[in-house]
Amino acid sequence: MGMEDHKLKVFCTVAETGSFSKTSEIIHLTQPAVSLQVQALEEIYETKLFDRSSSKVTLTPAGEVLYKYAKEILTLYVSAEKVIGEMTGLAKGSITIGGGSTIGNYLLPSVITDFRKAHPKIKIHLFVGNMQRIIELLNSGNINLGLIEGDVKKQKIVVEKLISDELFLIVPSYHPWAKRNEVSVAELIDEPFIFREAGSGTRQTIEKFLARHGITPQGMKVSMVLGSTEAIKDAVENGLGISIISRWAARKESRYGTLHLLSFKEERMVRNFSLITYKNSVSSYAVEEFLTYLRSYPFDKLLFKK
Q1: For residue 4, what pLDDT band results from cuts at 50, 70 and 90?
Q2: Residue 262 has pLDDT above 80, yes or no
Q3: pLDDT in tens, 15-51
Q4: CA atoms of 143 and 127, how far apart (whole Å)
């Protein structure tokens, strides 16, 4: 990837998000730097590529044409890299992965470590964020693939189930419920409850489950909303409320007995961990290797690893 295609990538991201500020967040460049990249392209083609008059930045007719070609050019770069990689037989290159909070913090570190042992030449960059953020990064082409815990309603994204995950209610070891193995969903409304932030896949799963049983967050005693599962576990251990998290995230605490896990009498709370890729994008040799590895990875052995 040279300078020109970096400009094209910035240009495409602005075109897709309709915003210079969003682009600067996604690509990790300052806003002036994003504007400069676009200006440089406008100077090359001696025409305006964006109409900046309204609140949302839109493409001019010339911009529309460049966008169509830019997408093709970026795809061709990847294809060239892939074919050369296959010819030379060297699995090198880099992969950028986006992981939802649960997967990114509790599953991917082990998977990536194991993959790197088999492919030492491949570099892996991992972004961890909530599901909404991972979908944004995939849409803007800043990650090659995403792993999320929740449902996606996006037409340009290919979703593939990786494994299923079960969520449990967590209470501190000294809580009266710590002597039980299950509770009824209706019992939740009397206890202070801790939610993850909106935009998180875990939060989406919990809300859907509760809604099926006639419970809304408004009808609960929500004691706090926290931005990470680690913060939630600390708060629960400190008696600030109860919460629901993935069994993956509770591995250590349930082993050491600081948190007690309960399931629900009515039904188990199960969701999918999904692999998401962008429709029509060409994967590089390195990405293909990683996808193959991921699809056959023995996740269960991690769950019971001491």
Answers
A1: low
A2: yes
A3: 998 999 888 888 878 888 899 999 999 999 999 999 9
A4: 8
Q: Which two tokens stand for residue 141?
A: 């082409």
Beta bridge partners of 170: 243, 261
Question: Which two three-digit tokens encode residue 91?
Answer: 């699995």
Other beta carbons within 10 angstroms of residue 137's beta carbon come to 19
Q: Is residue 280 part of a domain?
A: no
The tokens 């109409």 sit on which residue?
Answer: 51
Confirm whether 110 is domain-assigned: no
| Range of weakest confidence among 5-19, 34-48, 76-90, 99-113 | 76-90
Residue 3's domain is classified under what CATH number?
1.10.10.10
For 177-207, write each residue's pLDDT tens digit.
Answer: 999 999 999 999 999 999 998 888 899 999 9
What letter does residue 243 receive in the DSSP assignment?
E
pLDDT over 90 at 301, yes or no:
no
CA distance 226 to 305: 28
With contact defined as beta carbons under 8 Å apart, do 237 and 157 qualify?
no
- Count: domains in the chain: 2
Residues of the domain holding 207: 164-270
169 and 263 share a domain?
yes
**CA-based nearest residue to 159, from 288, 278, 3:** 278
Domain for residue 96, yes or no?
no
Give strand ranges (E) for 173-219. 182-183, 192-196
Rounded to whole angstroms, how far apart are CA atoms 26 and 269?
33
Q: How far is CA 270 from the centre of its chain?
A: 18
pLDDT the model gives residue 68: 93
| Tokens linked to 238 | 């400190």
**Pair (265, 169) in one structural domain:** yes
Helix (H) or strand (E) holding 271: strand 269-278
Q: Which residue has the tokens 């419920």?
A: 177
Alpha-carbon span 82 to 95, nearest angstrom: 13
